[in-house]
Amino acid sequence: MSKADNMLAILMLLRARRRMTARQLAEELEVHRRTVYRCIDGLCAAGVPVVSETGRDGGYYLTEAFKLEPLFFDPEEQKALLHAIQFAKRSGYPYEEAMERAVGKIKRSADAGQAERLERQRGYVDVVQGPADAALAGLLELLETAIDGSRSLEMAYATGRYGELTQRRFDPYGLARWKGKWYAAGYCHLRGELRSFRVDRIRGLELADGAFARPEGFSAGAFLLDGLLPPEAGDAAADGGVTVRVAGTQQALDELCAHWLFGRALAERTERTAAFRLDEESLYAAAPHYLLSLGGQIRVEAPAELRRCLRELAEALLHQYADEPAG
C-alpha cells in the first residue's frame, strides 16, 4: 500500500480501538515498524491529534474529541473553510452558530501552533458590505428547511412598487444571492409557473400541508439570472436586438464590460471600442443611467436614439442643479 493508504488505515484502527502499539499496528498492516513511525509522523503533521505514551501500557491513541469529529483537513482546506465562513457571515446566512461550532471543531483537533495559525488566517479575509437584515435569517432558515424537506409554504409577499400584499402557496426549489439580495426560486401556485421572489419582500411565511417534488438539476441561480439578465449577444442578434457602439479609455471599457448588463451582451471588443447587442427594453431602462455614470471616459457612437436619450437625461440633470438651493 502507499503511504497515504497506510496512514488512513492507521487512522481507522486508532479510531476503532482504544490504543495500539507500533508493533500491533505493524502486524495488523503487515508492514515494518519504521513504516508505522513514518505514518504516525505524517498524521501528526496533517493535524491529527495522535497521542503517544511510553511504558508497559503505552501506545498510540486518538483524543476523544477527534473520535467524535473524524473529519480532518489539510492546512489549505482549513484556510479555505475559514475564509468561506467570512463570506457566509456577511451575507445574512442563517446558520452562523453552526459555522462557529465547525470552526471550534477544527481548532480542537489542532495543536497550539496550528490553532494560532488558524486564528491568524481567519483575519486575512473580510467582506465589506452593508449589515445583513437580522429578520432575514429566520426567513432563510425556514425556506431552507422547506427546500430540504420538499414542503410547501404559505407566503405573504409584497409585490410591485407600492408593496401590495398577495397571499400565495409556494414550493421553494432553491435559494440564490445576487447583487446583495437573497432570492427564493420555485413554483408559485398563484401564477401557475416558476417564479423567483426577493426574500426581503416576504412579509409572512409558514409551512403548509402538502409536499412537492423538486425538479432534478434545478438551479435557483441559473433561473434567477435567466429572468433578470437580457439575452446574450447571440440571442439578442437573432431576436432583432440593437447594437450599441461605445468608444473610450481602456479602463472605462473594462469596467463597462464587467457590468452585469453589458458583460452578457458583449459582441465585439478592441482596446478602445466595444460593441454590445441589447434588447430594446434593457437598452432604454437600465443602460443609459449606468453609461452616464462613466462620464467623459466613454462616448456612445451608436445608435442615435441612445445618444438622444443620454443627452435628454444630462440636460434634465443640468436643469435640476442649475440653481443653488436657497440658504
Features:
Arc Repressor Mutant, subunit A; SH3 type barrels; 5-stranded antiparallel sheet; 327 residues; HTH_11; 15 helices; WH-like_DNA-bd_sf; elongated; WYL_dom
Brief rundown of the structure:
InterPro entries: CBASS_pafABC_assoc_protein, HTH_11, PafC-like, WH-like_DNA-bd_sf, WH_DNA-bd_sf, WYL_dom. The protein is of the alpha+beta class and 327 residues long.
Describe what this molecule looks like in 3D:
The structure is a single chain. The chain has 327 residues and is an alpha+beta fold. It has 15 helices and eleven strands. 47% of the residues lie in helices and 24% in strands. A hairpin with a 4-residue loop joins strand 3 (151-159) and strand 4 (164-178). The mean pLDDT is 83. Residues 9-60 form the Helix-turn-helix type domain. Residues 139-206 form the WYL domain.
Q: Give the termini separation.
A: 85 Å
Rg on CA atoms, Å: 29 Å
**Unreliable residue runs:** none
Shape: elongated
Level-2 CATH architecture of the largest domain: Roll
Record the strand order, biggest sheet.
Answer: 6-5-4-3-7
Give the proportion of residues in helices: 40-55%
Which structural class do the helices and strands define? alpha+beta
Say what the CATH topology of the largest domain is: SH3 type barrels
How many beta strands in the DSSP annotation?
11
- SSE string: HHHEEHHHHHEEEEEHHEHHEEHHEH
Protein name: YafY family transcriptional regulator
Domain Helix-turn-helix type: 9-60
Domain WYL: 139-206
Pfam family, one: HTH_11
